[in-house]
Specification:
Order of helices and strands: HEHHHHHHHEHEHE
Number of helices: 10
Low-confidence stretches: none
Largest sheet: 4 strands, mixed
Number of strands: 4
Structural class: alpha+beta
Length: 218
């Protein structure tokens, strides 16, 4: 609703959009965002709207789930994970908690070889939960709408900086900035993505995946 905000305030000189999910939400087991602690498989940013991740899994097809894991999280084992989850659902399993989903994913990836097996499985669990969260909250659709409305809300010479936290978000931001630059709507955009320093990552591990891009209205 940035267009509504600009209508009330007038053209915006600077916009900073932080696309990250609140750490307080992630760390609250009741919200079901993380598999690190037992909780309901919900994943909704607003628990009073839409359907939970558990409900979403009851209606999804294997092909749709596999596509979701690829598009929303670049999951390399998407086919294996999707097959395992749908197989459990077809058996009548009610996947209603974070630990249940985590266990299904872990069991499906036992074939992964090598000393990094545990770390690879952990990353796949993280990506799978991320993919479901993005889907349940329509995060890409909301971001796309924001990016489309953004230029009209900026004053001449107005600046925007967007902080994203995974490749899917960053791709949308990059493509939008590049398109509006070609169309002459933006006069300048960040030539390259800006990443946090190693020092910042050491003090805040959640900054590791952060990517910053900026643009200036013509």
């Amino acid at each position: 609703n940035i267009d509504q905000i600009a209508l009330e305030s007038g053209p915006l000189n600077f916009v900073l959009a932080d696309l990250g999910v609140s750490s307080m939400q992630i760390d609250n087991p009741v919200r079901g965002f993380s598999f690190k602690s037992e909780g309901p498989l919900d994943l909704r940013l607003n628990p009073n709207k839409g359907i939970s991740a558990a409900e979403r899994l009851k209606t999804i097809s294997q092909d749709e789930l596999e596509g979701m894991l690829v598009e929303n999280a670049d999951e390399p084992n998407s086919a294996v994970i999707a097959r395992a989850i749908i197989s459990e659902i077809n058996k009548g399993t009610d996947i209603s908690t974070t630990s249940q989903l985590q266990q299904i994913i872990k069991d499906s990836l036992k074939f992964i070889p090598g000393k990094n097996k545990e770390e690879e499985i952990k990353k796949s669990c993280q990506r799978s939960f991320q993919a479901l969260r993005i889907d349940v909250n329509s995060e890409f659709e909301v971001l796309y709408e924001f990016l489309e409305k953004l230029p009209a809300t900026l004053a001449k010479g107005g600046r925007v900086a967007i902080l994203s936290f995974h490749s899917g978000e960053d791709r949308l931001v990059k493509k939008s900035f590049q398109r509006f630059l070609r169309e002459g709507i933006y006069s300048e955009i960040a030539p390259n993505v800006i990443r946090p320093s190693s020092e910042e990552c050491n003090t805040n591990s959640r900054a590791r995946s952060a990517k910053l891009r900026w643009a200036i209205k013509a």
